[in-house]
Amino acid sequence: MEATTERRRSTGAAARPEAIIERGEVRFTVLTPRLVRLEWSGDGRFRDSRTQVVVHRALEVPPFGLAEDERFIEIDTGVLRLRYEKGGGRFAADNLAILVRHEGVQVTWNPGDAQKANLGGTYRTLDRYDGDTWQDGSTLPLEEGLIARDGWHVVDDTHGFGLDDDGWVEERPDGDRQDLYFFGYGRDYRAALGDFAAIAGPQPMPPRFVFGYWWSRYWNYSDEELRTLGARFEKERIPLDVLVLDMDWHTTPGLSLRPGHEQNDVFGEASGWTGYTFNRSLFPEPAAFMRWAHGQNLRVTLNLHPASGVMPHEENYGAMAKALSWDTSTHAPIPFEGTSQPYMRALFDTILRPLEKQGVDFWWLDWQQWPESKAHPGLSNTWWLNHVFFTEMQRDGDRRGLIYHRWGGLGNHRYPIGFSGDSVISWTSLAYQPHFTAMASNVLYGYWSHDIGGHTFHKHIPRPERHLEPELYARWMQLGVFSPVLRTHSAKEASLHKEPWHFGPPYGDAIFAAIRLRYQLAPYIYAAARQAYDTAVSIVRPMYYHWPEHEEAYAHPAQYMFGNDILVAPVTAPVGADGTAPFPVWLPPGKWYSRDGAEAFEGGRRVERAYTLEEIPIFVRPGSVIPLYPEGMRDLASVPDTLILQVFPGAQGATELYDDDGASQGYQRGEFARTRVRNRHGDRAHRVHIDRMEGRYKGRPAKRTYVVEFLDAGIPESVEVNGEALPYSAEPKPGSWLFDAAWLCIRVDLGLVPVDEAQDVVARFVPEHAAPAGLLHRMRRAADAVRYLKQVWGDISALPDDVDLAGQAARVLAYAVDEGDDEGRAARFTAAVRAFEERFAGLAASVDATPIDDAFKHAFADRLGR
Questions:
Q1: 13-32 b/e (C-beta count within 10 Å ≥ 16 → b)
Q2: Where are the alpha helices (DSSP H) in 702-750?
Q3: Positions in the chain whose pLDDT score sits under 70
Q4: If DSSP states are collapsed to H, E and C, what string results for 57-121?
Q5: Can you give the pTM of this predicted structure?
Q6: Angle formed by the axes of helices 809-818 and 825-848, to 10°?
């Protein structure tokens, strides 16, 4: 019997006819060389509409071979060879086999095969988890990821709900059927993620402000308190982009968590959690408050728990009831049903839109109630609310969609960002979050936002003993720098403070430094967000994406790649008695540089190092060009005119600067610009070429100031831009270059130049004036050791001269470079370096000859040797 196929109007939902092989009760669709859709239908009808997971199948048809006889169908894509026995009925091990061939490795899959080495996906929430362990001792029930060391994965979409042309839920088809997507990729994990994004949609780019600092605390803040808080951020010169208002922004009648005082509403839900009316005792004039926030370039998000519907005490209850023709004579609450189109339309139009007009920028959905829709059993309320709120925001003009909610399952990567919930405050939780965040990229959920510092204490800790360890918080903030989102949050406890100024040195210093570094890295992070949209590879991704053939890439889940060029291993253990935390890092094969370019490491091995509080194990690929914003930013509402290009040592490298308007959906329509930067380093010249900016978008600048920083460099004989020599300046000045001895960095300020013109920067060297390898690291070790020695020196006598001079090596080098004529600069620098190296070699002996205590001598020597 000839099969019939259900057709839908949804653009791109149906595959191209030439990709489809349909025979009676089965249909095979070749989507990519690594991806085949497998359908069996007892009634011969197949689904071409969008589903929760799959929204696009009209891909370019890859080449494939088809061979069949009376008994078998065989499809060969080069990577996959599928063989099905006709008339075999439902797919089973005895009628279907797929051979995966990748880089000399072959594996065969049959329906029913269990994966042995899935690399993990993510989970809805970390609420009450201490690391991956819940308060009852159970382990986090992670969902499977799309990739596995088995080399294949199957997504079963048989029971997925459909989405109609308006994006609304459709019931699952009737009848006995199978709808499977087979991914066969060997070790090409990134290709597998790209194939999934091709059919399930890309990771959308959040607005640029998302990558700034978010302030959040569960606290009954008043308008005045938040203004005071904002003023303190301003006074302390701490940048801030998002203000998160938790539960107490709205009225909370009946809310209590005290045992014996809890109340339930008419729906059986805990009273007070759902609310849509501002608490006027806290916010007398909500619109005026939000005008103030926007005047500070702050975005505002409000917490919603929508499960209890709309109560009669809400300000807009009447408007909601009128929109639904609801009888208000009995003052009955309007019950919630998220899949009811009339209910959700009325909720948006009569309650949420008016709040948005007052100034709410996006919503924090905090669904914690029944897991599935009552009208559509099997449909996750979390998944559905993510879909509805995000797509509703996108329909409103040209704004980028943005919500803040928990993971709802496959397909939810289209609705960033994630709120991971109320994790326990502990070193264990901190240590787990790098792994959890990176692993989520295996389902394309690349934008988890964690409660930096943890949310709440272990229940067994008495309240008087609940205090946030400053060191733990500082380390968590450092993790936040290299997370998709930097957002602090905490439970409603009076003693639980996370304001950066609440912590004295050295912890406050480390926290401030982390926030500043986050804003400096913003252009690198934003470009990585574009790469995630284009390639399906998230900003934070596991090591095995890049080094799948190395066992160590799987054995070190606490470290990860942050974008393409930076490897991060956040310290997640407290320091010891010596003030350092041992933290081993596996470096992949090849050379790697420390964040400041001061140290070079040969990879392919485990590096054993100990780190002080202010140190973060950050490693950069050789030749990388890392774009940075200058220090001093207040927010990401607009981008500065100046862009710093940090060029790391290495023979060659390249990057691509990315720009768009930061707010609209135009980036999906080609409204963006890219600027390619190439770096080549030889013995006598180091060249950085900045191409002209390609592309257009609203707000595209006509000019930009580029500052090129050659890290870990010696003194050049000359610096040229577009073939013309630049003058040296001891102070920063446009159209000049200087040598920063504290960083051993050549800093070239091109000044304000047209973005439509290429810029060619060349530093020329004489090899004998090159800086010795590791010089900057030795200078910093010497400075650190001398600072220590001054603190413990118990004699009235002065330190030995060589010790004092070695401790300020950067200043001595700066004087050698700046004090004198241009022609002798390189020779003076070389002589000063030689003198420092001699001093450094004799430092331990110099101190050993003094009468200082032996323990201090050993500690001094240890600091020199780190």
A1: bbbeeebbbbeebbbbbbbb
A2: none
A3: 1-10, 866
A4: CCCCCCCCEEEECCCEEEEECCCEEEEEECCCCCCCCCCEEEEEEECCEEEEECCCCCCCCECCC
A5: 0.96
A6: 160
